[in-house]
Amino acid sequence: MRGLRHKLSLALHRQLLLRLPEPDTGNMEPTIFRFVLRYSRSEQIKLLLMTLAAFPLLYFSLDLPKTIINEAINGDVFPREFLGQSFEQISYLATLCASFLLLVLVNGAFKYVVNVYRGVVGERMLRRLRFQLFERVLRFPPSQFRKLSQGEIVAMVISETEMVGGYIGDSIALPAFQGGTLITILIFMFIQDPVLGFAAIALYPLQGWLIPKFQRKLNLLKKERVFAVRKLSERIGEVVNSVGEIHAHDTSQFELSDYSQRVGEVFVIRLQIYKQKFFIKFLNNFIAQITPFFFYSIGGYLVIEDSLSFGALVAVLAAYKDLSSPWKELLNYYQVKEDARIKYGLLLETFAPPGLLDTRILSEDVDASPELKGAMVATNVDLSDSDGDAVFADGLNFNIDLPRSVAVLGPEGSGKHRLASVLGGLLRPRKGSVAIAGVDLAWAPQAITGRRIAYVGQQTLLRSETLRDNLYYGLKHRPIRAAEYSSEAEIIRQGEMREALLSGNSTYDINADWIDYDSAGVDGPQELTQRAIDALQVVDMAKDIHDLGLQGRVNTHLRPELAAGVLAARNELHVRLNAPEFSQLVEAFDLEQYNTNMSVAENLLFGAPLDSRFEVDQLPHNEDVLAVLREFELETDFVEIGRQVANLMVELFADVEPGSPLFEQFSFISADDLPVFRSVLSRVEAKYSDEITAQDRQMLLTLPFKLVVSRHRLGLIDDAIRMRVVQARAALLTRFGGENGQIEAFDSRHINSAVSIQDNILFGRLAFGRARSGVQVGGLLREVIEKLGLRQALMEAGLDFHVGIGGSRLSAAQRQKLAIARAVLKRPDILLLDEATASLDESTQQIIMDNLLAEFSGRSVFWLLHREGFASRFSHVLVLADGKAALSSSFADIGGEEELKRHLASVAQS
Q1: Is residue 739 part of a domain?
Q2: pLDDT tens for residues 576-586?
Q3: Proportion of the chain in helix, strand, coil states, percent, rounded to 5
Q4: Same structural domain for residues 646 and 766?
């Protein structure tokens, strides 16, 4: 069934193909010229033909001014015949001028069409080149990623290809167009007068000899610049990834100095490039200005001697003015060509490393149905590092019948981690092979190793998507079901597919359903959701997902049943909170009452801001809010309250060190802003004055919005102000709430989709000063959720939690558990864990290990252990030492844990 669906998806994505692209063997062309000819030959021919068609018109546009001057203006024989019609002098002049204008328009149109098409060809080729480079990144051997940083790869694929793509569109058409223009103008000049023609090209040989000499030096500088920028990108990437270490060790100034040195090196190289580049330009301009000297002197002499007509001289001078542009374009093209050639060569060197995976390994037309069960045979496997970091004299040999659970042990440097990478299909051994039922893992396509084997290492980087997307990632091999489009969207999709095809890119639809439900053992999305939750329970992550679900939000349109459950939980919780022993723990939201456990800003908005203008820190600058404050006579009071708070903070924290945690805990004003408010207070002498500047007023207004009555107890927000705040709240919500969509108000009858599920259920604020109020309310919340059966719905909501960049919103333990759950979800024949639980506490490791071994009963588990005490849970033990199998036996035959420890001790001593 799965094979049939895969064939149908292939037929689906090929039905719109306009033409098949030339087969790509996976090898990049050795030169940029070969790359251009291989992938854009037909487009370049079209450009060439369009270019050639423009030259006759160009010639006529050069010759016509001479006719206008000599025949229409200076002529004396009229009427004249033109295009089969008879014209008097004025009408003849007007006709010729109109013809000239028409030729200019047609020439401009030709240039426009050619330039646009050149741009299209260049962008398609740039897209193809970037796709090829990205595809090669997926085929890099692991050793290449130790030589290249993320920053370098990004810079090469994005930045360095930009200029190469621009050159490709111009590679043939531009020199043909500009060269043809140059030749056309020269032919015209020679026809007018051979002497002037020779004068026009007299200095070209000198330029042709000088420019390449200077260009060679410029090429070396550009190559040096590329390497320097790559290293700079690498360093920036390292700093971004280790910014925590920089702050922890106070090495900011060292890093700034290092960065300054590196950008200084780039500056020096670029300065030399500028000097060389503009000297070449100066030389060209100087030589170009010598030629008019010949025209004026020689041409003037010939006109005086009546050897050349005045009209012909004017035409030649006009032609020469047009001649300088194509010549400069050709010289500039030569520089761009050399730059593109260098960059393409550097890209080729970097993206063709030794050990590059064969394209067949990424092939889509592979049957992944054979199960990896039977004899696993390792034969003379050399686990030496290709970079020479680890060298083993002998090969690794073992034979293990699968399925079974295997504990892999060995000291650091024994080769166990490289064995895990070989078994996971991540790298190939230097020699030898590991085969399962005749399938050589080193050369098996990823359609087999990526589906039948699940590798989980110690480091886990997640995609910047939801937790659900990261879990399902291991099921997205090929499109399974086509996306459904409207008629207009289908036309757009066909255009996108056509461009992808012409650019040699993937024509698979990213919007299709890629999830392989068969691989997960389910029939559809709902069953897959339950299967995902089951996988998370296997890795002891059920509580985490439940808590993340509480932090999620409810889309009432997509999840109406969850919204109804949350409302029911809210009502049930507040029934319990009304009990005498809990009644003081939470102050519920009430539209008609001021909530003393909320800040002034929260009381004023009484909801979640949907517009950034209504964020708390923006309220003092929001003219709409200020207008409401004035309407209810609150602005003056708030400015005075701000003055009093500022005065108090300045007095209390005048002698506190800037880095003191007291600022974080008790101050409304940061240490950096304290001098600013001190200056504001010095300018504000009276209790309140209309003379206070708008800037000072805004500064003072930032403070009262932060006051929480029950927490700060300053006595500044009295009952009268609270009443007016409630009145101002009603006005704000009338104008900016509801359908206006700038504030989503708290409403006891509805869900607030802009706040978390937990806040929707609580529908209030915990009371300040109540010991253990959070613990007690949390217990009540859990009881309500269990009673109403919301646990499953909350876990499903937790799957939609966005994990952040690289999973940064999850803890390291959660990221590791999620990686293991992702491996479990795709039901591999072999689960391979490379010390994947080493960072977890021992009790959690035991729980996960027992769950996984039970889950994979009847399948294989290879677990690289960092504690030999766990080995008794496995049916087979493999001990490595110096790249060899020091022990390969069932645990029962070893003789117990003490005997295993003796084996490991002898391995460590040897």
Answers
A1: yes
A2: 999 988 888 99
A3: 60, 10, 30
A4: no
